[in-house]
Amino acid sequence: MTFEPERYELTAKPLHAFESNWEPDRRDFFKNLGGGIVVAVLLSNSARAQESGGGRGGRGFRQPPAPQEVGAWLHIDTNGGVTAFTGKGEVGQNARTSLSMAVAEELGAPLSSVELVMGDTDRTPFDFGTVGSRTTPDMVPQLRRAAAAARQALIEVAAAKWSVPASELQAENGVVTDGKQSAAFGELARDQQIYKRVASESGVRPATQWTVMGKSTPKVNGRAIVTGQHQYTFDMRLPGMLYGRVLRPETFGAILASLDASTAKQMAGVSVVRDGDFAGVTAPTTSAAASALAALRAEWKNTPQTSARTLFTDIKEPVSASPAIDKALAEAHHKLQRTYPVAYIAHTPLEPRAALARWDGDKLTVWTGTQRPFGVRTELAQAFRIPEENVRVIMPDTGSGYGGKHTGDAALEAARLAKSAGQPVKVTWTRQEEFTWAYFRPAGVIDVRSAVDSKGKLTAWEFHNFNSGNSGMNTYYDVANKRVEFHNTKSPLRQGSYRGLAATANHFAREAHMSELAAQAGIDPFEFRMKNLSDARLKAVLQAAADKFGWGKKHAAAGMGFGIAAGFEKGGYVATCAEVSVQPGREPRILRLTEAFECGAIVNPGHLHTQVEGAMIMGLGGALFEAIDFADGKILNPHLARYRVPRFRDVPPQIDVVLVDRKDLPSAGAGETPIVGVAPAIAGAIHMATGEWRRSLPMMVLSAGGSAQSGGAAF
Amino acid sequence: MELLVNGARHQVDASPDRTLLTVLRDELDLTGTKYGCGEGQCGACTVLIAGLPARACQTRAAAINGKAITTIEGLAKNGRLHPLQEAFLDQQAMQCGYCTPGMILSGVALLAKTANPSREEIIGAMQGNVCRCGTYPRIIAAIEAAGRRMKGAAA
Ligand code: FES
Ligand code: FES
């Protein structure tokens, strides 16, 4: 079995240069911050490997270890305000809230006194990116450690002041006290210039003693969201700012043969920039920029390209023989060989890519909604051939990403236009640009062969994934005779990360296959899984989901079906059950979804619940109707009217989420794994309802040139 | 042209074929009204025009003719949130929050027309609003809760 490093956590463009030894300079610090207490968390070697993704069995990102030493730091100012600095970002996963909770918990400070500076390459330590469900497992422990050390420092200041042993003091609610006298954090921080460095792996409060973490806590900036005050990159504005638009090639990879910009150039306030195949305009308003763009006359040299029609043969390649698997299949009681094609899908973040760039001489500042501000800084430095120190990238809390905002495309465009304009420029992508020029979740073909013996035990498992990626590819079912391979074939479209990466495709193929195999062997699909599993955590979530769902308690009426699936990825264990109704000529109705999820000790139960529910709903789209259609270097359905995403009516009337809290285990991330069980559970339910196995993603038949439309008799 | 937005009159020097969305965002800096698709398909740009929900990306600024416009910035009165804003906070009906202003205004329009709407009525009225983060169940719960609260207050 071969495992490659995770291929699609990054897109094609690799990160080469990392920030060298970043650490706040003590004097600078206090010059800028005034006095107070600063704690920097030093990364251990293992944390550095983790940061660069090399952890967990080598299945992380293909990156050298991050060379920087500091993972996060925090400052307690002389008013008792707490500011923590992390390179992670907020994309709707509520990291700002959970990380603030981690600081408040260990510091003994009120949550409202904690402010988080996130994703700013000048102010926060290097961070690989808000990717791979790493924020909780990596950043929560670091901030807890920093906060715990800061609390200890405050206690020591008070102990010296009052001449009492530190062991008799407590810090809670922003105050240090020995029961008789007390002092607020700000008071203790006054006249201090304490700078501590701590290693990231020291002890903190056990989950059983948490008072802030582990409790449902509302989004810390929720009020700014519901009043429209929060500024996403899309909303930002600087004095003198111009609006930029980029001329998009007619087809992918087209070469700009000629450009007639004479009409555009005559428009008031409009400038036109051409740099090789790149061309764009700047104008004083969004509308003027759109008009100027429309006035450009370009000729493109296109190259012939393939289409969605041949995709699933284009990305396959021959595979060597497997005599051991052949033999097991020949001897098996039941055997099965199936193919699972998976379409390209689009992240469709509701805030399209956007960037605002400003040059001050040869210094560049860019605000952009990216999940990798430090990676984008590198991209910008390389593109403009300037040192990374001259580039600052700031990531405002962003209108989601789902793995789709790892690159700095809009940042490069805004910076290029701003360079010519000599004024700040904001580039905001249209929905059509987002559907065309962002990257997609990889398409793939997965071939599976399997066998079971007369007792219903798996005896062989062969699994080949072509192009879609290796995340979640290995099987967790007990089978001695297996071959699991990822084939790195050539993708006709630009592709990259997506929520859960290839784990969705791989779980779909594996779990749908397991259900079909169970049906063939005449065994209940829940029993079949339990019989072939020994992983206790996986069995526990499977049991929890089955119990909640009432698996096996109810018989499906005509046209109704139940399905089940289990999964493991990125430290999270999941099991999903679906109840589906299929009426002839109508699209399937998902009546009920039940999901059990376990990711160690739960940090914020309310937000974890939302995250799981949100992933399930997003998963419905890829399971049933989302697909990118393309031909000749063009996307054929680059509009929401032709690319269907889940809407209110698609939401199952009943969704049950069972959160399994393992206070004895470290917390893992939850942004991705809850999506993986949805499609295969629905596939099993559709089979029970109709007798038919749907083995492609999406499962609904798509009309030509677009995805299945709501209410259409597309099934 | 003159626009009446959130109770204030604004003189805007803009060509009449511009959309209300770009005028609100670029001229009045009211960026709570979001761009999500520009094709009337996502509801992120929803505002109220004379109390009725409208897609600002599909509305020409010149066609408004002095009617009162409400954007998300104008919903709270004297720092007091609208009951639906409160309910969004109570239910945590947001993740990235980018859809939230449009969701709230669509919901406010529904509640103004239908006190205490049923789940089916909510789905019918909100079908044109996309939340890519999948917070729909929470949004339904928030509208239901605000409906109950507003009905209680009116009785
Ligand atoms: S931006 Fe107006 S409906 Fe999407
Ligand atoms: S909360 Fe992200 S789109 Fe709705």
3D structure, described in words:
The complex is a heterodimer of chains A (715) and B (155). Chain A is of the alpha+beta class and 715 residues long. Chain A contains 19 helices and 27 strands. Chain A folds into three domains: 8-218, 2-Layer Sandwich (Aldehyde Oxidoreductase, domain 4); 233-303 and 353-428, Aldehyde oxidase/xanthine dehydrogenase, molybdopterin binding domain (Aldehyde Oxidoreductase, domain 4); 315-345 and 439-710, 2-Layer Sandwich (Aldehyde Oxidoreductase, domain 4). In chain A, the strands form seven sheets. In chain A, strands 11-12-9-18-15-16-17 form a seven-stranded mixed β-sheet, sandwiched between helices. A five-stranded mixed β-sheet of chain A has the order 4-3-2-1-8, sandwiched between helices. In chain A, a hairpin with a 2-residue loop joins β25 (630-631) and β26 (634-635). Chain A starts with 25 loop residues before the first helix and ends in a 25-residue tail after the last helix. Chain B has two domains: 2-74, Ubiquitin-like (UB roll) (Roll), CATH 3.10.20; 83-154, DNA polymerase, domain 1. Chain B has helices at residues 20-27, 83-91, 100-113, 119-126, 136-154; strands at residues 2-5, 8-11, 46-49, 52-55, 68-70. In chain B, strands 2-1-5-3-4 form a five-stranded mixed β-sheet, with helices on one face. Chain B is globular. At the A-B interface, α7 and α18 of A face α1, α2, α3, α4 and α5 of B. Bound molecules: FE2/S2 (inorganic) cluster (2 copies). One FE2/S2 (inorganic) cluster (FES) sits between chains B (94-99, 131-133, 135) and A (92, 350, 400).
